[in-house]
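Could you join me in thinking about how sequence relates to backbone shape in a protein? We need material for that, and I hope you will provide a protein of your own picking. Once you have written the record down, we can walk along the chain together:

…
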Amino acid sequence: MEIKWIEDFIALAQYQSFSRAAEFRNVTQSGFSRRIQSLEQWVGAELIDRSGFPPVLTPAGQLFREAAEDVLAKLYDTRAIIRTEQRIAGKSLQIAAGHTIALNFLPGWLKALSTHFGEVRARVIPTNVHDSILMLVNGNCELMFAYHHPELPLHLDPERYEHVTVGIDTLMPVSKPNSRSAPAFRLPGTKQQPLPLISYTETSYFGRCLALLLDRAAEPPALQLHYESDMAEVLKKLVIEGEGVAWLPQSAIAAELAAGDLVAAGTATWKLQIELRVYRDSSNRNDLLNALWQHLRASSASLG
């Protein structure tokens, strides 16, 4: 039995929808259903009544939910205590962020922060969006950085979790240039010669952004999946090696675009603008965090 099965089950009990719970858990609906079935096999009873809509808990499911929530709460509390003891002493921050943000945004952001607050020790934990949210909700970080698009919101209670916009990024298609400095792979491609696509896994946040962008297209491009990864840095390396076209955040490829190692593979219609947000739990009244938040609010006003 795996903890993620219990977390899946609790999400399903809350949302009463396999599709919404799967989206929250950042997994495909088929994969989510298999995990619920695996939990039921481990328990030895049906936990979900699937005969009607919405799906509801069986009596066994209701009993298991009470025990599951209690067990998870104790595990999370114990983990929070252990992680707190392991934190850096002094003026410090625990930060959860996506890999792209941790690599391309946070180093410069933390350096700029030192001019206002002096030396701030930070422990940056690169992770996926779902795990970042869990860290914030479970009190295992003071700040969580994540990308945001209004049609792909994160599942966070706005009454409790405040956010500030700290940047604007653009997901754009890029390709290795040919000998004439034009894109070796140019959108939209043709049915006879579809473009090799280096893409994100469909459950990753950038994967959902790309699906949104392609769904909006008046005429879908001719693409053939070539490679797939949930990390933008892997996609960037493959594009530089000439393996195909990929949509990458502009912040992650600024140097390569300036040097001519990468070029835009399509017009502005193939781009998607996304926000970079930082979140905090408003119930956390840490003095450093409060002062930092006021500074971020003031700085965010200039972005508007």
In short: The radius of gyration is 22 Å. The longest strand covers residues 161-175. The chain has three domains: 3-84, 87-164+277-303, 169-274.
